[in-house]
Give the backbone structure.
Amino acid sequence: MTNKSFGPGILLLALLFGIMVAGCNNGVSEGPGSGADPALNGTWVSGSLEWRLNNGNSETSIFGVAGYNGPTTKGTYSTNGNNFYGTTTHYHGNYIAAIVPGSNPGSGWVTAEQSYSIFENYYRSLGWSEGQINTQMNSLREKWMTTYSITGNSLTLTQTRTSDGYISETTYTKR
């Protein structure tokens, strides 16, 4: 019998991508003048998520979620006007081990492509259809875009879903 339960692994994946990405934008491309806004440099915190931004490089960590504390992803970002573009380049092995039962990717950084094969196999073990897996994997591989604003020590990311107009906002505080 196939185990179709959604345990802590799915919870952690959903939390991370829901908070960090705050939405995706298919076909995102950066316009002329893209760079990294130096005002974003620093450590930003929202609930259990910590996001470190430094001149176009990013790293996230989560604390106290489903028993996991530590680094989750790292990647690159750029800005153009008030648009923030991000790409995940690596997942931390300890994070993958926490969200994918039975995986052992090591305790260092694993490339995004290596991580994706682990995630795909995990989704198959849950009984997901190839269509569901492809949809999920396509969303993980996409570059994402959100708008941002900084007021004092607060960073707000705002994403509007094109399908239904739903607006999602996440606010981080600079530490």
Notes: The two ends are 48 Å apart (CA to CA). Residues 91 and 115 are 7 Å apart (CA to CA). The first strand starts at residue 42 and ends at 46. The chain is about 25% helix and 40% strand.
